[in-house]
Task: structure prediction
Amino acid sequence: MLLLPCPHCGLRDEPEFSFGGEPAIRPVPASTVDDATWADYVYLRQNEKGAHREIWCHSGGCGQWFVLTRDTVTHAVIAP
Amino acid sequence: MRLSTGGRIDRSTPLAFTWDGRAMTGYAGDSIASALLANGVKIVARSFKYHRPRGIWGAWVDEPNAVVDVVWQGQHDPNARATLVPLRDGMAVRGVNAFPSVSFDLFGAIDAFSQFLPAGFYYKTFKWPNWQHYEPRIRAMAGLGRVGHQRDTRAYETRHAKCDLLIVGGGPAGLAALRAAAAGGLSVMLADDQPALGGSLLTDTAEIDGTDGLAWVAAVARQGQVLSGTTVFGAYDDGSYGLLEARNHAPAGWGQARLWVVRAAKVIFATGAIERPLVFPDNDRPGIMSADAVRRFLRGQAVLPGRSVVVATNNDSAYATAHALQEAGASVVVADARAVPGAIADGLRVLPGTVPLGTGGRRGVSWVDLGPQDGARRERMPVDLLAVSGGWSPAVHLFSQGGGALRWDIERVAFVPEGGATVAGSITGATDLPTCLAQGHAAGLAAAGGGDLGAPYSPPAPAAGAVLPLWQIGTSRRRQWVDLQNDVTAKDVGLAAAEGYRSVEHLKRYTTLGMATDQGKTSNVNGLALLAAATGRSIAEVGTTKFRPPFTPVPLAALAGSRFDRLVAPLRELPVHHDHLALGAEMRDYGGWARPACYQQIGEPVAAAIAREADNARARLGVFDGSSLGKIEVHGPDAAAFLNLIYYNEVANLRPGRLRYCLVLRETGVVFDDGVVGRLAADRYLLSPSSSHTAGVLAMLQAWHQLEYPAMQVAFHDVTAAWATFAVSGPRARALMQQLGSSVDVSDAGLPHMAVADGSVQGVTCRIARVSFTGDASYEISVPTGYATALWRHLLDLGAPLGMMPYGIEALSVLRAEKGYILIGTDTDGMTLPVDLGLDGPLRAKQVDFVGKRSLMTPDAKRADRRQFVGLLPEDANAVPAVGSHAVAGPREARRSLGWVTSACMSPVLKRSIALGMIEGGRARLGETVELFHLGKISRATICAPVFVDPAGERLHG
Result:
C-alpha cells in the first residue's frame, strides 16, 4: 500500500486514489495531426522500467488530479 | 503420551474432540497437533501426491504434513494447520486427501507406482489434446481438503493502525527491542503469532535481569501495544504491513479474526528461525520429527512423542532436546554427524560421526540404521521416535518481502539477512540468548535514537560448536524426501537439474518444491543446496526463490472483512421505493439501483405484466420513476465552451430552456454514454447521463477539466439524489399535466418537445421537461426529493381516471425498442462509434475539437463494412430471437457472422416480434434476409431501418 502525495491533502493511503496511467500529451489541433501521431497518443504508452511519470486522482478525497514520478522497480515516489 | 506433570496446559479443563470419528481428550493449552500426539496418533495425513502416511514434523508454521479438516460450532475449515489451531471442546478433526481415512487409505496403492510419477510428470503426461479428461481425476486423487458449501458466518473485522515502530516477533530479541524503543519514547506495536509471548523462553527456561525469563516477558510486554496470536503475513510498500490476529477465544459473533493494516515508520524483524530436516533415505515416516518441535511439545504441552529415541543432528541445538527427553524418562541416543561434537553431552550417549542411513516401519518409524556418512557400516536401532536437526534457516521471509537483501553465511550454513539494526535474534543466525537480547536491545535503541537503559542481562552461554553442512546422506535407492508437503525427493531435484531447470524459480515450478501452504519453510534451503550440488554451483550462486506475501495462508474472508454483498456494492433505493413495493413492483438491480422491473398484478406472469404496461402506455397513459437518471449541473462562464469540447453533439448553440439528445465519446471515438443535455441559463447546464454512468461521466468531466482545460471557469455538481423525477407518457399525458396545477404552461406550444421549464407545483419548486424515451408525448416532472412521495401519489390519483398505470424498466425497454432508441451498453459495445449508430451529423458539422473527434477520421472509422445499427424483422412473428444470436450469411463454404442481435422483444403495437442489432454494412443491406443462429438453431429475419413505430415521430407531440 503506497503513500501518495496529494497536492492538497498531503501523504495519503493508496486506496484513496485512482490511477490514471501515463500522461499523454494531446496533439492539438487534433484535426491536423496524422493518423500515426494520433494513434500513438491514444493507444501507446512507454511503460518505463524505473522512473515513470504517471497521473493519479485523489478520488476518495479532494478529487484533485496530479502528476508524479514513481520508480516502477522500488515503487518509491521520486518527485511529486 | 502425556506426562502427568509439567507443560503450560490446564489439566483441570479437559477438552473432548474427535479424530476421524474417534473420541479423544486433550486439555486447554493444547494445539490440535499436541492433542493428537498426546493421544498416540502417529499418522495425521496422507501425502499430496503419493498418499504416503505422514506424521507431525514441526510445532509451528513450518509443519508440512498436518493439514486437517476441522468442524467446530458449525463452522468448517478445510485446510487447518494442526500445529497452529488451538484445541477446542467439541472439535471434529479429520485427515484430508485420504479415503476412507488417513489410517487406512485406499489411494495408498499409488505409492507403489511412484517410480512412474517423476518430477514434471504432470506437465509431461497430462497435456493437450486430452487434458480435460485427466484434470478431474487428478483433482480427485491429489490435493488437500475439500471446501464446504456452507456460508462462513464468522465475523471478520479490519483495523487500521500506525506506529513509530513495528516489531515482528515476541521472543527475547523482539521484547528486548520493545523495551529499548519504549524507553526511547517510541510508540511500539509488537506482533507475535503464538498464543503466548516469549518465543524460546516458553520452551527453555532462562534467567534475565535476575528474574525468571517469563516474568521478564510479562514486565516488558506492558511497555507497548502487544498483539499475541497475530501473524505479520506481509510487508508491503511504504512501511505498510498486513497482520492477521486470530481471535480463537472470542465467542461467536465477536469477531473470529481481525485483519490489521499497520503503517509503521520503522520495523524490526525478530522472526526467529526454522529447523531444517536432514535428507536421508526414508526420512518421511511418521515418528520422524524436528528435534526442536519435540522439545516444544514436551515442555509446552507435556507430550512425550516417543520413549526410544534417536536424536540425529549436525549442530548443537538438538542436544537440548536430547537432555529434555532423557529427563522425561525416554532412552536417548544422539547420532551427531560431526566427528567432534560441540555441545555439552553430559550424561548422554553420543555417537560422533554418525548419521541416519535408513529407517523402517510401515505405520511409523520402528527402526533406524546409524553409521558413518559413507555407509561403511551400519547399526540398526529400534526406535519409536527419531528427532532430527539439520541446522537452522533464519525466518527471513518478511525481511525479504520488504526488500531486504540476503547473504549465504558459510559459517552459519544459512541465508542471513543483511539487515543491520532492523533484524535481531535468531533471524541473524544467532543461537544463544545473551546475543539475541543484545541484538534486540541494539535494534530498539537504534530505532529510538536514545534513552539507553543498558541491555538485558542473561548469563553467558557456552561457546557453540560449528554446524556441519549436510545436504544429502547416502546414495540409497530409497527415496530421500526434500519437501514433505509436495512429495518432492532428492531424485526429483536431480532430474529437474538434469532436464535443464537450473534456476531455483524454475525448479520450484517444475517440481512444486516449496509450494502450497508451508511455502517450503522446511524444504527451501535443502532443495537449493541439492540443486547447487547437481549443477556444480555454490549455494550462494543458486540463491533463493523470491519470498512473497503471505507468510502463512490468510483466509479470503479475513481480507474481505465486512466488504461483501451490499456493503461492497450498496444497492441504491428510489425515493418512493416502498410505494413501488406496495404496487406489486418486482425490484431488480439495474446498475446499482433497485428499480421496478414491472408491477405484477396478483397471479399475473412477468411477461404479461410487461406487455400490459407497455400496451397501456402506448394506448393511454403510463407513469415511470426516472429518479435514478443522472443529473449533473454544470455552472460557470465557460460551461458552454467546455461542454462543447466534451460532447459529440453541438451544445454551445443550445438556447436556454432547450434540450438536446447527445453522445459522449471516449478519446478512442467509442460511444461512452448518451443522454439529454439541457441548458437552464447562459452559464448553467443540466446533464442527464444514464443511471449507471453518472459517476463515470462526472469523473470524466473533472478529469478533462483538470488535465486538459484547467483555465476554463466551470464547476460540476452531481444533484442526482437531490431531485425525484417521474415521467408521464402517452396520448393522455398532456391531459394529466394540465390537471397537475403547476405554474408551467404545458401546451405543445408553451412547452414543445425537447424544452424544459422551471416552475412550482403546490408551492414547491419543480422542473418540467418534455423529453421522451418512449416515442410518445412525455413529461418529466422533478421535485426536491423530500416531496417525492407527495408528487408520486398525486400523479397516481390524477392518472387513475385517465387509465394510467405505472410501468417498469422492462416495459420501457420494449417501448424504446419499438422506436429504435439505443440503450448504451446493450445495443452498443466497446467498439461502437457514433457513425455506426447513424449519428454522423455532428462529425460533419461541428468545428470544435471535441473528445474522440480525431478517432472518427481514421481509415478504420470510415470502413464501409463497419457493423451498423439496424432493425431485424423476424420471419416468425411469434418468436423473439435471443439477444446475442449471430446473423450469418453467405454461401456454405464462406458462411460467417455479420453481427448480432442486441435487443429483441414482442412489440405491443405491431403484435409481432422485433429485434435490433449490429450488422456489418447494415444500412446498405435493408431488405436482405439473414439467418439468426443461436445454440444450433436457425431462424430468419429481414434487415430493416431501426424504427418500427411512428417513423415520422408524430406521436411525440401528443
Q: What stands out?
A: Residues 3-7+14-79 of chain A form a domain with the Folate-binding fold fold (CATH 3.30.2270.10). Chain A touches chain B at residues 1-3, 13-14, 20, 23, 26, 28-31, 33, 35, 38-39, 42-43, 55, 57, 59, 63-65, 74-75 (CB under 8 Å).
